[in-house]
Structure formats: C-alpha cells, structure tokens
Amino acid sequence: MAHLLLVEDDTTFSKLLSNFLGKHGHEVQVCSTITGAKEAIRSSAPDEYAVLMLDYRLPDGNSLDLLKLLREEGNRTPALIMTSFNDIRTAVTAMQSGAFDYITKPVNPEELLMVLKEALNRKETVSVKTTKKPEKQSLDFIEGNSKISKQLYEYVRLVAPTDMSVIIQGESGTGKEHVAKSIHRLSKRSDGPFVAIDCGSLSKDLAASELFGHKKGAFTGALQDKIGQFEAADGGTLFLDEIGNLGYDVQIKLLRALQERIVVPIGSTNPVKVDVRLIAATNEDLMVISQTGDFREDLYHRLNEFKIQVPALRERGEDLAVFIQHFVDKANEELGKNIREISKEVLDIFQKYDWPGNLRELNNVIKRLVLLSKDEIADLKALPQEMITSMEAVPAPVKLPGGSDLKLLQETHEKEMIEKVLQDVRYNKSKAAKLLNIDRKTLYYKIEKYQIE
Ligand SMILES: Nc1ncnc2c1ncn2[C@@H]1O[C@H](COP(=O)(O)OP(=O)(O)OP(=O)(O)O)[C@@H](O)[C@H]1O
C-alpha cells in the first residue's frame, strides 16, 4: 500500500480515481489546487507521499510550476503528470522538470496502475541509481539500423575508450542517458561506478552539496558528513543530465573540479582527489546558452571535448520499425501479453506522427497499446482517440507553390531559423535578436510577418 497525493480539480474524476486506487490498496489524499498541494506537502513528513499524481492544468496554475518549486525545495518524490493528449509537448517538458512519467487523459485504469507501479519501484531504487555500483550490460538497449544511428554509435565507440568529457545533446526522450551508459560500458572505466544525476531535479541550495559533499554543520540541516556524487563516481563516470539547469556558482565549482581533479566538500578546507570522467546531457544548445550568458563559456569549452547529437525519433527513418518491435516485445514480457502484430492503420499513424516525446513516448504508447489489445493484433481501438484525431487533422503535405522560387525558400528558411532561436532562448526576444544579429525592431517585424506565435 502506498500513500498518494492526487492533485486534481475535477471532483468527479478525482473521486472515481481515489475509489479505484483505494480498491487497489492505496491511500489517496486529494487536493484540487496548487496552493492546497503545497500546504499538504509542506505540512507532511519528508517521505509521507510515495507518488504525487498531478493534473497538468489546475485552477491556480500548472503542475509544472509546482513541480519546479518542489524540486527546488529538495523534494524528490516521484511525480506523475496527467495530461490531455494535446498537451504531450508540455508533458515532455515536465519530464525535464523532474517528473517521473506522464499519462494521457482519459486515464485508462490499468495503464495508471502500471505506471504507478513503475513510479513506486523507482522510489525504492532511487538511491541505487547514484550509489557506487558497476553498471552491467543493458540488454534493454538497441542501436537501430539507420544511417544516422550507425553514425551515432560510431561516435560512441570512438570516444568511449578515451577519457574525454562528452556533451550529449538531443531532444527529451531521445535516449541520451542510454548513450551515456553505452560510453561508460565501452570505456576503460566500465568496472567503476556510473553515477547519474538529474540536475533538473536538484534544488539550487542542495546542488553543490549533492555534487561535492558537505561536512557536518556546514549549513542548517547538514547533520552529518556527506560524500558528494563526484566522490561516489571516483574511478568511473559521472553523468550530469540537464546540465544547463546548474546554477552559476555550482558551474564554477564544477569547472574547478574538472580542471584540478579535486573537490572540496562544503564546510571543509581539505581538497579530495577524484578521478572522474564527466558526461553531460542537455536538450538545449549549450553553445547558445553560453553565448547568452546563462551558462559559463569556459565550462562549456571544458565539457565540449566531444559532442554527440542524439537524433530525434522522427529523423531515425527505418529505426522506427525496429524500436516498435523492441518495445512490443518488452511490453509483452512485462505485461504477460502476446501481441504478435500491429495493424497497418496503427503503423501508418506511427509513421506520420512526429513523436515530440521521442523514444519515451513511443515506449509509452506501445505499452498502452499492448495492455489494451485483446487480440494478438493491436489495432486502432487501443490507440488514444486523440492521437487518431490529431493525425486526421494533419493536412496533406503541401507542395510549395514555388519549389524553385528562391525568395520563398529564403523566407521559409528565415522563419524556421527565427523560430528555432526563439525556442532556444525561451522566447527572450532581446537574446534572440542578439543571436540572429538583427535589432529588436526587425525581429518584431519578422515575427509579425511570419505570424510566429
Ligand atoms: N537505444 C535504446 N533502446 C531501447 N530503449 C531506449 C533506447 N534509448 C532510449 N530508450 C528508452 O527511451 C526512454 C528515454 O530514454 P532516456 O531516459 O535515455 O532519454 P533522455 O534523452 O535521457 O531523456 P531526458 O531528456 O528526459 O533526460 C527510456 O524509457 C529508455 O528505456
């Protein structure tokens, strides 16, 4: 039995859900607002709730902001975001803010139990992930056959045996952590620990202590000496996920640790020698954010001894079929099912869909598909209705009227470039204008001209 906090403003749905979860042996406390959730969490014991189940849209904000705040306060309770299919891109961002997983509404009860079980298991293993332990060969891993995947793993094999720092860049859910583990596994350090830290879920105050350790009494709450993850990774690999989220002060300490190969725990004056290879992952372009001043440029250059770009699923062409088969096999085994085939209609949708959540989303959709399919062939009935509707709404690819019209092509390119830079700098128009090397007025004019939202 687990104590769950459900934050949901639809009272009928929250009642149904708590009854259902209650019948499955869980104790559910319900809040309907972010403010209520904050109060419930702050007035509870640190590990009171095993999982937070958060509706995305709430009357006083969205649960992403709540999650960010909780992570900043040091709360690490696994969180599950419940969202409508149309919000999948937001759910993907939620994963970057430290959510464990997302589930789309209308919630399928069995799917919910499955994801909940994973979240509860995760809670039990969360400390294992960062303890000194050799990483074993993962059988769960496939490379793919496309040209782009072959190149990816060629780079992995090239850089693995060296001691170079690596930046792994790619959209959320593309498999950056998997790539980092492969590098570790193929390195001379493979018998040493692989320590993974999600910088997105570290609070600003605790990040330094988590990475470098602290001495008893160094700050309020430092009740005993603590070894940092740098020391825990000694002789192995330290994987810093979402490194762009580290605060400036910690970035300075990190640079020093990399350059001098020593760490100084907070409250101590004694440096400790460490032998750690660093791999950092990011879904932002670190070069862009280092140019806008949000990430230290010297640290960027120190980390950027080698850069690997992990492709989005939509760019992996023929790999899609390989991953589908892999995830179906995995789901069959996990759920005790025997789905042998996926219908042509479903495959057509999979081919056309752009998979903003990448491999993670494909894995989730397939798990749901396998779970809900009654026969050996998984067909449309088991796909979220919204996915089908969203695909029906996609207009047929339009042929550009001027396939060779240079002006039109230039404008299309310009629009895409402006959209990308705006996204990279999180819609900060001053930064975007600076990077695009145009003045703000021109940028505003172009945003309006191209109707960029
Ligand atoms: N090569 C692979 N073979 C099989 N499964 C994979 C592979 N790469 C990723 N996955 C699966 O896809 C999901 C996302 O992978 P992972 O956590 O490595 O992505 P990520 O890019 O690090 O995500 P985030 O940006 O959220 O940190 C996981 O469930 C993982 O098991």
UniProtKB/TrEMBL annotation:
UniProt modified residues of type 4-aspartylphosphate: D55
Domain named Response regulatory: residues: 3-120
Taxonomy, superkingdom: Bacteria
GO molecular function, one term: sequence-specific DNA binding
Record's keyword annotation contains Transcription: yes
Keywords: ATP-binding, DNA-binding, Nucleotide-binding, Phosphoprotein, Transcription, Transcription regulation
GO aspect biological process, one term: phosphorelay signal transduction system
Keyword Translocase: no
Domain Sigma-54 factor interaction stretches: 142-371
Matching PANTHER family: PROPIONATE CATABOLISM OPERON REGULATORY PROTEIN, TRANSCRIPTIONAL REGULATORY PROTEIN
Protein name in the entry: Sigma-54-dependent Fis family transcriptional regulator
Species whose genome carries this gene: Dyadobacter frigoris
Organism phylogeny: Bacteria, Pseudomonadati, Bacteroidota, Cytophagia, Cytophagales
